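User: Let's play a game. I give you a shape written as tokens, and you guess the letters that built it. Ready? Here's round one.
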């Protein structure tokens, strides 16, 4: 005859993989969100750099 603790232990072994899978997907989501955010920031920076390069002005000083 099995005690209550043994049944609980056996049942937890059957679903223990769920914790690992949940942690894996949580880390995956965080990595994807971070990657997408970094990519968007990089694109925005490139656009700003292109705009700044296009709008360069040259100042010259002459002695009169």
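Assistant: Ready! My guess for every position:
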């Amino acid at each position: 005859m099995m005690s209550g603790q043994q049944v609980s232990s056996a049942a937890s072994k059957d679903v223990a993989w769920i914790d690992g899978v949940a942690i894996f997907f949580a880390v995956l989501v965080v990595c994807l969100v971070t990657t997408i955010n970094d990519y968007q920031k990089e694109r925005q920076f490139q656009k700003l750099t292109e705009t700044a390069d296009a709008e360069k002005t040259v100042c010259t000083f002459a002695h009169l």
